[in-house]
Amino acid sequence: MAPKVYRIKVGRGDTQFEAEGDRKFVLEMIARFAQTETTEKKLQPADKTEGKSRSVATSPVSKKMAVGEFIRQIGFKKHTDLVLAFGYYLEKVKGVASFTPADINTCYYEAKLESSNTSQMIIQNIRRGYMMSAKKDKDKGMRSYVLTRSGEEHVEKKPAKSEK
Length: 164
Known about the structure:
There is one protein chain. This protein is α+β, with helices and mostly antiparallel strands. The chain folds into 2 domains: 38 residues; 102 residues, Orthogonal Bundle (Arc Repressor Mutant, subunit A). The chain is 48% helix and 12% strand. The chain is built from 7 helices and 4 strands. The strands form 2 sheets. It has a two-stranded antiparallel sheet. Strands 3-4 form a two-stranded antiparallel sheet. The protein is elongated, with a radius of gyration of 19 Å.
């Protein structure tokens, strides 16, 4: 006899959860989902006005957030801002010391967004004072970049999307 496969799909607001497998696995996943949901509620600010001005850097992240989710949270639309946000993600979430245009293009791919002329967007961010060239890495052979303090502040001050 074939083992029973259990499948569950739960949706609450804009959050969805889906699990498939044997009974024990599905029950463990439901427990995890319920635990993360209650943890997120505890971490939400009590004051509604405080939630709108919450910066990206102070949002609770228990595990590494996907780049696509990070970009959707920030809500940037222009490619110059997207490249800056990808750089922020690489430095703060992934923990890289510097990034290359190829790293940014990988972020576009992972976020399932149409890429633009990444090198040109980096140049524009350098002119804005949000990025700068990193110390040369002889191993990489490519130019690498880092965010400036004002670049980090620009991403952090972008208000989170207002909840409907």
